[in-house]
Write a structure and sequence with these properties.
about 280 residues, mainly alpha, 12 helices, globular
Length: about 280
């Protein structure tokens, strides 16, 4: 019975991670809130600083997003190295090579911020009220997109250095639980004049190196964790659920962007943020 209860709880948390990773409501913030809620209910949940659980569900989400963009990833990798190795083809390969270089630039702010402020960021994961405050910021970001973000007409080929830096800085803010990574980077891109497809695609390509780097940094802790053997089945279930739900949520987000309905998530973050501040 205990194992079944653990499987259900971990599956729910995996689904929460999977849904809220692409959807702009903050996956890290929702995991903190639900872990706090489940703990108050007396249910066994991974601790808010459980690196093992964090690595597992984040890996599930990362794999799902990489699978969605698999053809683009393969093309970009080939173009990047071909540009270096084949000077005679550089004119043709330049757009993809340039995209890769801008992606590196966009990753720098979060990498530096994570390295410098890791301890303070980790402490924020134990404070549900802080998460509530950050969700209010996410609500503001999403409402800004709804009001002003759909006027952009610049496509991916028009991405520039300032776009990459701006979206990278917005991704830095999203290291804090409660500030949505996808929501903040979409804000940085769409308010800067990018159309929604260019902003969303660059946003999720930005997610890949940052997520991969975070997983690598925590891999040693994962491999030496004593909880893996005891909870391997709940962990496995949460990994699978996280990946599947992330893939489905990605399609949902793109549909919502096309319909220009991100304001619904703004209202949601506003309500949940207030509830967290008052009651958690």
């Amino acid at each position: 019975m205990k194992l079944l209860k653990d499987i259900i709880v971990y599956a729910i948390l995996g689904a929460i991670q999977g849904f809220s990773e692409p959807i702009p409501i903050s996956s890290s913030g929702h995991l903190v809130l639900f872990q706090s809620l489940f703990s108050k209910m007396g249910l066994m949940v991974p601790q808010m600083n459980d690196v093992t659980f964090e690595v597992i569900v984040n890996t599930g989400s990362l794999i799902a997003i990489m699978y969605y963009y698999r053809q683009d990833i393969i093309r970009l990798i080939k173009s990047f190295f071909s540009y270096i190795a084949k000077p005679e083809e550089r004119q043709t390969l330049l757009p993809d090579f340039r995209f890769c270089m801008l992606l590196i630039v966009a990753t720098i702010p979060a990498a530096i911020g994570g390295a410098l402020f890791n301890d303070k960021i980790e402490s924020a994961f134990s404070n549900a009220k802080f998460v509530g405050c950050m969700l209010l910021i996410t609500a503001i970001f999403l409402m800004l997109i709804h009001k002003f973000g759909y006027k952009g007409r610049r496509t991916t080929k028009n991405l520039n250095l300032w776009d990459a830096l701006r979206m990278g800085i917005f991704q830095l803010f999203a290291l804090l639980p409660g500030i949505s990574r996808s929501g903040s980077t979409l804000t940085g891109g769409m308010l800067g004049g990018l159309d929604q497809k260019a902003a969303r695609d660059f946003s999720f390509f930005m997610f890949m190196p940052v997520s991969f780097g975070a997983i690598i940094l925590k891999l040693k802790h994962f491999l030496t964790s004593s909880t893996v053997a005891a909870l391997w089945l709940p962990y496995l279930i949460s990994f699978i659920v996280s990946g599947v739900v992330t893939y489905l949520a990605l399609h949902l987000l793109f549909s919502i962007l096309n319909k220009k309905k991100l304001n619904y998530f703004s209202y949601y973050c506003l309500v949940v943020g207030i509830i967290a501040i008052l009651f958690l």
